[in-house]
Every structure is written in structure tokens, then in C-alpha cells.
């Protein structure tokens, strides 16, 4: 982390904390353009996002030089907007990743950075604000700060209502967050209504059996699980597992083929599909949770346990966490012994060999 640099505030210059907007007394020694009210807020910002964007803030916060021509000024403004858009992308992606990892407190600084940049670039009424409001809402739900979460969701809801060009993917995310809010408040019927809307809007964009739709099914399953409606919950958990299993199997098969083509005598093929960081984090959150539920269930269902363990093993393989892939594969081998015959045994064996070869190569 950038070291603490105490300030003696120059006369006439009002310095405010990056996180709380209170008077600042500490300066980041990296960019020398970011200020904090205390060390705790500096550490929180660093852990969340500042470490990744410290150097990127310098051209944004350095005073613009005087230009002699309108063309130079226009070029400078266009460059500044592009830099801000780049930072919006970085801060939003990082906030989403932290959210999937369950680091709710760390989400707030990254999402707050994103919010201020979006307002600066797109304005206070733009639909581009909605994804950031939703990140802040979900983080506050995770922190148990439901009143604050409700405020962000209200802002998101009214922005969507007033917008004429809001995509169904954003509407899906809005209803998912409303579903999570009502679930946290114990209002399960209202939660399920919003989660059903989430699935509907997601389906219009990606289809009913897509990984981007599966999150709605997963959260609905959690509601039924909490209501002790185990048959419905079990069916939805199976649906989510099937969706991710199919998707990850396609990626693993593609990677296996690419590995074969990169061997002597083959042309290397790097065009195979892969997961992005946020998809990885969401998959790990969902599949790990279902795996825990399957393994801890009082009534064992070997075939379903094998399916989710196989899915989890593929996920670890694709994210190159080969040690965890090996641990998961050992559980998979134990579970598969309880099934008389499994058509996927050959594919599983090939995956396990590949995992072991990756570990041996380290």
C-alpha cells in the first residue's frame, strides 16, 4: 500500500476524503492526488480498488494545460472521456468480482469510484448508473444494511422506469437485486416474484438454459430451501448444475482439443472459448454452494453429487487451480463408486489425467 503522507493543508485548498468526503489529512504517496481522512479509509480504498487504478488517476486529476486551439482542446477532452470510460470498466468489473467473492465491504469503494465516474461521463439520469446502483445495493444487502440497499434500488428502479432504452439484461439484474432484498427481509413471496421476473428478462436475452439465467434459478432455489420446500429447491439446484455442467464441459472439451493441436505436428489453436473473471467468480459461488448442499444432505443422491463434483472439478481445471481440482476429483472418484454405471466415466478419466499432468509439469 502507498505510504501515509500527512498533510498540512494549504490555505484556500479544501481536501476531502476519497471515501467519505470529510476533510482529508493523508495523501496517497503513489498518485499524490488522492486524499483520506484517516489511515483506515486509505487502507479500505487500497484493498478495494486504489492499488489497481492509482497510476491511472494521475492524468484524470492533473490540471489540464492551456490549449491555443479548439482542435487541441477537443482532442484533450475526448482523451479524458476515454480514460474515464476505461476506469469505469475497471472499477465496475472489480466491484462485481469482489461481490461474487463475498467481500461486501470491499465492493463499496470500487463501486463508489465507478458511480462518480459514470455521473461525470453520462449524467445523473443515465441508465448507465443502474448497474452501479445494483452493485452498491447488493453489497449493502450482504452487509445487512437493508435501508441503504433499498435506497440504491429505488434509484435504480426509477432510472429504469424513466429510461426508453433500458436493456432486458439490466432489467434482469434489477429484479434479481430486488429479489435478494426481499429475501433478506424475509418476504419470500415478493422475493420469488422478482426472481421470476429476473429469469424472464434474462431468458429473453440469453435463453432459459444459459449461465447468465442460472443465477435467478439459484436464488429461487435458496428461497425454497429456506422455506423447507426441498423438492422444488432440489429441482432448481439440479437445473443450475446442468446448465453450468454443459457450459463448462464445452469449454473443457475445447481446451483439450486446443492442447492436442498445440502438440508437435499440430498448429496451435488459441481460439477456444473461456470464462471471464466475473463468470469464474459467479460459477465458484454457485457451484460450491450447491456442492455443499449435496454433500451435507441427510438423504444422499449419488448421481447428483457426482454431477456437481464433476462440474466443480471442471471449473477448477479451467481456472488453473489444479490443486483444488485434484482435491475435488478425489471426492468425485469416491462418489462415482456409488453409481453402478456412468456414461461420463471416460470423459472424467481424461480430465483427471490432464489435471495430474498439469500438476506434474509445475
Brief account:
The chain has 362 residues and is an all-alpha fold.
Q: What features would you highlight for this structure?
A:
single chain, 362 residues, mainly alpha, Serine Threonine Protein Phosphatase 5, Tetratricopeptide repeat, 3 domains
- Net shape: globular
- So, CATH architecture of the largest domain? Alpha Horseshoe
Terminal-residue CA separation: 30 Å
For the biggest β-sheet, the strand order reads 1-2-3
The helix count comes to 14
Describe the structure.
The protein is mainly α and 362 residues long. The chain contains 14 helices and three strands. The chain has three domains: 1-63; 67-166, Alpha Horseshoe (Serine Threonine Protein Phosphatase 5, Tetratricopeptide repeat), CATH 1.25.40.10; 243-362, Serine Threonine Protein Phosphatase 5, Tetratricopeptide repeat. It is 70% helix and 2% strand. A hairpin with a 6-residue loop joins strand 2 and strand 3. The longest helix has 32 residues, at 230-261. It comes from Leptobrachium leishanense. This is Zinc finger MYND-type containing 12. It holds the Pfam family zf-MYND. InterPro entries: TPR-like_helical_dom_sf (IPR011990), Zinc_finger_MYND_domain (IPR053248), Znf_MYND (IPR002893).
Chart the SSEs and their pairings.
Blueprint: E1 4-6, E2 26-28, E3 35-36, H1 39-53, H2 58-61, H3 70-100, H4 104-122, H5 130-142, H6 146-162, H7 168-184, H8 188-206, H9 211-226, H10 230-261, H11 277-296, H12 302-318, H13 322-336, H14 345-361
Helix pairs in contact: 1-4, 3-4, 3-5, 3-11, 4-5, 5-6, 5-7, 6-7, 7-8, 7-9, 8-9, 9-10, 10-11, 10-12, 11-12, 12-13, 13-14
InterPro entries: TPR-like_helical_dom_sf, Zinc_finger_MYND_domain, Znf_MYND
Protein name: Zinc finger MYND-type containing 12
Domain MYND-type: 17-54
